[in-house]
Specification:
Radius of gyration: 16 Å
Strand content: under 5%
Oligomer: single chain
Largest sheet: none
Number of helices: 3
Order of helices and strands: HHH
Distance between the termini: 41 Å
């Protein structure tokens, strides 16, 4: 993967110059501590559900940002797990 970031940046720059509204994809919140809590159904490392983890690679950037916002709420105890 050497050189890949340099190859991506000019593409964003070009699209931006052409007037395209381009949003880079946020990085995965995975920290490598992958264990699903039985009580919540959320990963104890990244706080995502199995559905969110599986869908992450194919999500649009705005959907990833929405998931990241929910993770913050979960960490603060402001979102409860689905039954």
């Amino acid at each position: 993967m050497t050189g890949a970031p340099d190859q991506v940046k000019p593409c964003y720059r070009l699209l931006s110059m052409l007037g395209a509204n381009v949003m880079p994809h946020p990085a995965s919140p995975c920290i490598g501590h992958c264990q699903i809590a039985a009580q919540t159904g959320w990963c104890e490392g990244c706080w995502r559900s199995l559905t969110e983890i599986a869908a992450w690679p194919g999500m649009a950037a705005q959907d990833k940002l929405a998931v990241l916002a929910r993770l913050s709420l979960r960490q603060q105890g402001r979102e409860k797990p689905s039954p």
